[in-house]
Amino acid sequence: MPDPKTIAIAGASGFVGRYLIEHLSQDRQVIALSRSIRPSDRPNIAWRTCDMFSLLQIEEGLAGADVAVYLAHSMLPSARLTQGRFEDMDLILADNFARAAATAGIQQIVYLGGIVSDDRVLSPHLRSRLEVERALGSYGVPVTTLRASIIVGAGGTSFGMLRRLIENAPILPAPPWTSSRCQPIAIGDVVQLIDGCLGQPWAFHQTYDVAGPDICSYRELMVEAARALGRPVQLVTLPLSPPSRLVTWGVHLITGDPRELVGPLLESLSHSMIAPERDLQDRLDIPGVPLHEMLRRAVDDPPPPEPPTGTRPKPFKNTVRSVQRMPLPVGRDAEWAAQEYMRWLPGAAFTLIQVDVHDQICRFRVIGMTQPLLELAYSPERSTPDRTLFYVTRGLLSAPGNKRGRLEFRQALNKRTMIAAIHDFVPRLPWFIYKYSQAIAHAWVMFLFGQHLGEQPDASSAEAPSSVGAS
Length: 471
Description:
By secondary structure, this protein is an alpha/beta fold.
């Protein structure tokens, strides 16, 4: 394919994204996708508002791009109340991006993930990285995956956490997992390797491990980082690993980093992250910066400039996101799951809930009441058999004026996995009451529905699907 002129970057305001923008915008057009509106006075950079949980916004954000770089993740909460595992949130983001990329005619997705160790049992973080790889390739767009160990650079998440640990705690415990080995790579090398893959047919559908030239244990990395910072640090060897929650709380208190971010990252440190081959670096002649030099640069060099200050559309204060992964019988699709949910719910609610479906509007009401608890409008123009979408239009349990609340049933990972999710829902109840009543009830109902789906038989070849919006 010809050299791509316009590159879209998902996760543009993050650590790697900021370095990549500075590099690519020197001679190409960059579309930077961000949740905030960030006007730029640089002609080669176009910031576009993009909530990655919105398929529509990603489609609009990718318009005009030739290739895309995927750097997004969702370990931090995206609403005031978030129900669900970060792995399921990440799967939705990747599935949305892959669908939108296919619609927009994107010719290649370059994805930056993590090196996968030989261990049979991977941490949730590394398992999620693998799932994202698979999800990005589910709709036909060629994917190039770069798997990296710790990425070192000024402003980086991992190095920043390590730096704050050393600066704030001169005595650090060294649990057994600190003997695991890693192969750090400099941020400048990562940026060049991504650039070297863009628009290259030989890189389509390929996975490359990328790493620096030096291998070290996490213990040795802490010592080298302390030396680069000019800070004395004493490591106290522990014979046993303390509980992961205790370690997460300790790192959170020392560094100030969110526990939702610290926990998954620490869990992945129990695995050695070594690149068995560095084929891509050999091909592009990028051997990598030595460990002592990348640490020196991370300490001495300034990080890339912050993205231009923009305005984020003012959200509702009390937003809710709830995501549940469920089994799906063979031969069934998301449209069938949505219908089954509406058929199943009245019985599961001990006949207190009545569900009416008419003219593509679903109303949930308590028997004997005229006003619906919730009213959901089926969106035929945004739905497909593998993704059924409803908008929350009104109801006694929904705050008035919220236009973005929605319920979806979707298949992902080549349609073998089903996810039910509520996005941007705003409750009418006072927050404290909602959190300990309606929110708990919703999570419990969806758990029971997932069990119900797991008990359903596979579809027979003679069964024909019917429309969700039918009267």
